[in-house]
Design brief:
Elements lengths: L1 H13 L5 H33 L7 E5 L9 E2 L4 E2 H18 L4 E3 L9 H11 L3 E8 L10 E4 L2 H15 L17 E2 L3 H4 L5 E8 L3 H7 L5 H20 L1
Parallel strand pairs: 1-4, 1-5, 5-8, 6-7
Antiparallel strand pairs: 2-3, 6-8
The site of zinc ion has 5 residues, from loops.
């Protein structure tokens, strides 16, 4: 738009010596340019709105990490894929939050590949108060296991990351003694965090590659997944009631 206006003004200012027909022609060209630009921007807005009209509004957006061609971290010994575990935990978490009266939107509910752009663009259409991206960590060291959360913008995200970290830290350790080890929340330049317009955090809940976690996550009972979902639920509800 600014380019069109600049181009339009120049010939008119120089055109005092023009014939009347010349001026009319200049103005007609300018008008057509403005109308065309207005029409194009209206069409662009309509297309954008249509593409984003997924129809979910809610207080919480849950973002199960990875999906489709991106499995995330894997534990081959126990046949575990992060993309499946994050979806399972996120669905349990959605049910827990909804049972407590919170409205929830999810970036995916199936095994679907999503870009970071897809995730924050969707989140920004929901009007949600928080975005929690659910992940599991991975390492070549099969004894590595701790919980942590990541934040993008200090002022926007840090309090949520801290609160969710606090509740994840109560998870029982996979070996059955005490609680899970922790790593203090740290900043991470992810588009999901930086470009979402609500407080957001990436929860690296447990290490899927840890041998004991692998046993628990694959034991068929869903107990470990439910523990993780309940820990996330406590952190999210704590944040929402205090902010
Ligand atoms: Zn992940």
């Amino acid at each position: 738009m600014p380019a069109v206006e600049r181009r339009g003004v120049e010939p008119v200012r120089k055109g005092w010596g023009m014939t009347y027909a010349g001026l009319v022609k200049t103005w007609a060209t300018l008008l057509i340019a403005i109308l065309a630009a207005t029409l194009l921007s209206t069409m662009a807005l309509a297309t954008g709105a249509g593409a984003q009209a997924v129809g979910c509004t809610g207080q919480v957006v849950l973002d199960p990490g990875h999906g489709g061609t991106d499995p995330g971290a894997v534990n081959n010994k126990y046949n575990l894929k992060e993309k499946e575990q994050t979806l399972g935990v996120a669905k349990r978490l959605r049910d827990l939050l909804e049972n407590d009266g919170y409205s929830v939107c999810m970036t995916r509910t199936t095994d679907k590949a999503l870009s970071n752009n897809d995730r924050y663009t969707y989140a920004n259409t929901t009007g949600a108060e928080v975005l929690v991206s659910v992940h599991m960590n991975g390492s070549t060291n099969t004894s590595a296991d701790y919980t942590t959360t990541l934040f993008g913008k200090w002022r926007k995200d840090k309090a949520l990351a801290n609160t969710v970290f606090g509740s994840l830290s109560t998870l029982p350790a996979a070996n059955g003694t005490g609680t899970i080890a922790t790593r203090t929340p740290y900043s991470f330049a992810s588009g999901v965090l930086l470009k979402s317009n609500m407080p957001a955090t990436i929860a690296e809940t447990v290490f899927i590659t840890n041998d004991r976690e692998g046993q628990l996550l694959s034991d068929g009972t869903g107990t470990r997944q439910q523990q993780i979902a309940e820990a996330l639920e406590a952190g999210i509800e704590n944040y929402l009631t205090t902010h």
